[in-house]
Design brief:
Radius of gyration: 31 Å
Order of helices and strands: HHHHHHHHHHHHHHHHHHHHHHH
Number of domains: 2
Structural class: mainly alpha
Largest sheet: none
Helix content: over 70%
Number of strands: 0
Number of helices: 23
Distance between the termini: 61 Å
Strand content: under 5%
């Protein structure tokens, strides 16, 4: 008996590992397309539903889709309104899993093909093209999933040999509506423990097909799974932005509301399912006697499996059709419950987009990182204003205020570079496609150059400090020319941020960035020649001119850093 329990747990582990492997392979193979799909998202809730349905159908994990959506809301890639629609669609998309298991996992013994499929997957894993290696992961994961399912079925005790098991479970089915609540709780807890509604669904279908539980108990477990699956997103959002937490709460509201109306209309809802299954040519699952005599693979067993799958699909479809019209109200409700703190609105020098940790898909986490890099560039540009103010300061006290701000911005740049780098470094390389790995390398280059821009601001503050210590001042003409240089740097910043904001899958023209860099170089050369001439004609203090030229040279270096960033985006 103990060996049987461990075999069941091992089979469940194989099922979950196979599902993760299959999902990971599909995500890597379709990562770019998924990013494009989400990038093209509009504010229409209906399009959001279709997007969530499509993505979840492909990657076979509503939890992964929901966690991904929470991450994208946290990253500012999706609005809260869009996220609610995607989550609704994900709930419908996950019902495909139950149908696949019902049709392939019980009606046909697909596990006999598992080992040959693994052989095909192994051969494809040695291919040079990354596309085929990703597909190999999907094939091997698919094989392991159904092999695990087959082992789970075989390791479940045969009720004809151990009828005491059925007698034990039957005790929980004699409490009327109380039994429904008990099995709903069981479904919720199992999903919480396994962190996979698909795994709980597989176990539910196995117990139902073997006569362990009646159709009503299986239906209640399905409702419980819809509650349990919301916890994953709430855990992912717990350290995220207010909008990320709101998206996760909206998911909980959505599923809880659905479970409430389904419990209120439980009997008529199951009667509707029974009529649909009867119309399909199978016995009514409500009229089947579930006992040790039910044969797995029989017409009665198939009817029960199809009944649960149909219930899962109709429950989420009806819930979506009903609540999609109230999406604005849901958004208002979760916004009222989770309020933004004042500091979260005003603090512009912290990470905004990746403080919720990685989203469920490594490929799609790069979208968060890129959003944070753009934010980093905007913070860096803000520091340029402090450079201008420091140059224009007319007293030591005023200058000291801006010098401290430039030192602080340099520290901020160091911290942001470190945190983005840590985020990128934590991405599992084996889950990234070759294109994604190249994007990661480019991002490392970008954050390094952005950190150097922070160093330049602090370096200029040091030059100005040395000038003040020696009691020197710039002429009005010098300050005017520094302003001209700052304007060119600001223009280059704007072009750089535009280039960073362009979609990775859209070609952009580098000429504007190159033109800005050329303007900065030419201005540096012109100002340097003019100042050297003034020194030769004794029109300027040599020491003041040195500080002036050092600042101009530092601006030219900033132009180099910015063109490097634009080039890295290509």
């Amino acid at each position: 008996m103990l060996l049987q329990v461990f075999t069941l747990l091992g089979a469940l582990g194989m099922f979950l590992y196979g599902m993760n492997l299959m999902s990971g392979g599909l995500q890597k193979a379709a990562g770019n397309r998924l990013r494009n799909l989400l990038a093209a998202m509009t504010s229409s809730p209906f399009k959001g539903v279709l997007t969530g349905l499509g993505i979840t159908t492909v990657i076979q994990s509503s939890s992964a889709t929901t966690v991904m959506v929470v991450g994208f809301v946290n990253a500012g890639l999706l609005t809260l309104m869009q996220a609610v629609g995607v989550i609704m669609g994900a709930n419908i998309g996950t019902t495909v899993t139950a149908w696949i298991i019902s049709i392939l996992g019980f009606k046909a013994d697909i596990s006999i093909l598992a080992v040959p499929m693994m052989a095909v997957g192994f051969v494809m894993s040695m291919a040079k093209k990354e596309k085929y290696r990703n597909i190999s992961e999907f094939i091997i994961g698919f094989a392991l999933l159904f092999l695990g399912l087959s082992l789970m079925k075989n390791s479940v005790p045969d009720l004809r040999e151990t009828p005491e098991v059925l007698q034990f479970i039957t005790q929980w089915t004699d409490y009327g509506f109380g039994s429904i609540l008990i099995f709903l709780l069981i479904g919720t807890i199992m999903t919480l423990v396994l962190q996979s509604s698909s795994a709980t669904m597989a176990l539910t279908l196995i117990m139902l097909s073997m006569g362990w539980i009646p159709f009503t108990a299986a239906a209640a477990m399905v409702l419980g799974e819809n509650i349990g699956t919301t916890i994953t997103a709430n855990i992912a959002a717990s350290v995220g932005s207010p909008n990320a937490r709101r998206a996760a709460l909206a998911h909980t509201f959505f599923n809880l509301f659905g479970v409430i109306w389904a419990l209120i209309l439980f009997t008529p809802f199951l009667m509707l399912i029974g009529k649909i299954i009867t119309w399909m040519g199978y016995p009514n699952p409500l009229e089947i006697v579930y006992s040790a005599g039910i044969e797995s693979g029989s017409t009665e067993s198939t009817a029960a499996l199809y009944g649960v799958s149909m219930l899962h699909t109709l429950f989420n479809t009806f819930n979506t059709c009903l609540l999609i019209w109230f999406t604005p109200l849901i958004v208002k409700a979760v916004t009222a419950l989770i309020k933004s703190k004042p500091e979260e609105k005003e603090d512009k020098v912290r990470l905004k987009y990746i403080n919720a940790g990685h989203i469920g898909t490594a490929e799609l986490a790069l979208g968060q990182a890129m959003k944070e890099i753009i934010h980093f560039a905007q913070i860096s540009r803000n520091g340029l204003g402090y450079i201008r103010s420091a140059v224009h300061a007319t007293s030591d006290e005023e200058f000291e205020i801006y010098r401290k701000k430039l030192v602080k911005y340099e520290e901020i740049a160091d911290r942001i570079e470190y945190e983005i780098g840590t985020f990128l470094n934590a991405l599992p390389q084996e889950e990234l496609s070759e294109a994604a790995r190249k994007s990661t390398k480019r991002m490392y280059k970008m954050i390094n150059e952005l950190e150097s821009l922070g160093d330049s601001g602090e370096a200029i503050s040091r030059i100005l400090s040395r000038r003040n210590v020696h009691g020197k001042r710039f002429t009005d003409k010098n300050v005017e020319k520094i302003d001209t240089m700052i304007n060119l740097i600001d223009k280059a910043y704007g072009v750089m941020i535009e280039n960073l904001s362009v979609s990775e899958f859209t070609d952009f023209d580098l000429r504007r960035a190159i033109d800005c860099e050329c303007e900065i170089n030419e201005m540096r050369n012109t100002l340097r020649e003019e100042e050297i001439l003034r020194i030769e004609q004794n029109e300027s203090s040599y020491q003041s001119s040195v500080y002036y030229l050092d600042i101009i040279s530092e601006f030219e270096r900033m132009g180099d850093f910015m063109i490097n960033i634009s080039e890295a985006r290509q």
